[in-house]
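Help wanted!
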Amino acid sequence: MEVKEISQATLKRLPVYFTYLKSLSPQGPVHISATAIAAALDMGEVQVRKDLAAVSKAGRPKVGYVVSDLIRELAAFLGYNDVADAVIVGAGKLGRALLDYKGFSEYGLNIVAGFDIKESLEGETQGGKAIFGLPRFGDLCRRLNIRIGIITVPAESAQSVCDLMVENGIMAILNFAPVHLRVPEGILLQNENIAASLAALSNRLLERMNKEESRNEKIEPPFSEA
Amino acid sequence: MEVKEISQATLKRLPVYFTYLKSLSPQGPVHISATAIAAALDMGEVQVRKDLAAVSKAGRPKVGYVVSDLIRELAAFLGYNDVADAVIVGAGKLGRALLDYKGFSEYGLNIVAGFDIKESLEGETQGGKAIFGLPRFGDLCRRLNIRIGIITVPAESAQSVCDLMVENGIMAILNFAPVHLRVPEGILLQNENIAASLAALSNRLLERMNKEESRNEKIEPPFSEA
DNA sequence: TGAAATTCGATAAAATTTTATCGATAAATT
DNA sequence: AATTTATCGATAAAATTTTATCGAATTTCA
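Answered by r_m:
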């Protein structure tokens, strides 16, 4: 076995490098160093180098990496080349926004269709993606061999939608509902709680503001005991 | 200083406990143990206990924690009690979905208004949230003392929107555009790349399928050399 | 051609995070 | 009342992740 374990943390950063490298002008320099990437992305250069070592062998001292090669290697490694199909259950505002989002193709993803329990939503989105009633879910997934499901229903119905997905061969689930879903062993689950992310940000902000306040107090006590 | 350092990792898990505890029926048991929470959330019980220790001192052996107390303590710690205002720039589908999303209030967040460069979008969302033209951004943020900004514009304009936010007193930014934004020191930035998240999931799935495939090959080689 | 400047890749050290262990405590049971 | 059981909180060990260090490679410049 010469398969090196690639860390979860690295895996999360690779798409960042990919996006950054893609944003560089094709007219720009052919090479780029880990040092330069690190500077642009506000990271440590050693970390960048280590991360890139996981996907590329082509770094040359003093020169760096060939940008286009790196992009290619990252895309290959991350599976952005072979297209994977996915479906969305929950055609509310978020669901429809994702259905019509164009950016997925950059990452080798193709949202096939949406489903919703509300019959009034059946039809298609502004962008032309089909929305079906939930009864057709199983049939369509099985026929097209869909393996990836996105849940954008309210918390109350998320677990039953999740179960439905699992029953119909979905192997990986991206869940936007703010609940912890129970899945059988072997099913991949990733949670994406937007409200919680935002709250965490707000939280960090508050903390920082408190810290600075108390620091100011220390420097200039209103009525010190001296 | 008796301020214990609270780890970044713990901070990310606290909202999960909060959401789970809130989902429990008020008619249910008064107490809950770290063991039970861990089982429900598929985590290690020691980790749960350690995380909870950061916000609560009230765990009793053999009994556990008082559910309602825990919820209260978590909410207080995470700042869900005092409401923070936020604005969104980019009133496309995602932006409008977030504007109308009801779930933020659970987390002490209030989305005040949306902004967009496209005049045709001015007016209000289905849910009744106002959408203004970008020129009014600075004025409104300063008058209402907004500190949190959400970016849902395309990658190309994200940096300039980010700059605009910083100029007008925004201290924390949640960025949905797939670009790395440069912010001055002291500004909090959190990136949320939905496409990349999904791709990561798809990636893990592929990897697992490959692994299983190769395992099967090992167990039953098509034409072994034996 | 030789010296200086960059940068890589690898290894080692430091920091962080997760997991295990164990005595103490409180309730339930005998 | 004593014993058993479940659970906490703390401490220690293990694992993971980040950061630092350093020799070797490669280009640039004198």
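OP: Thanks! One thing I noticed: DSSP finds eight helices and nine strands in chain A.
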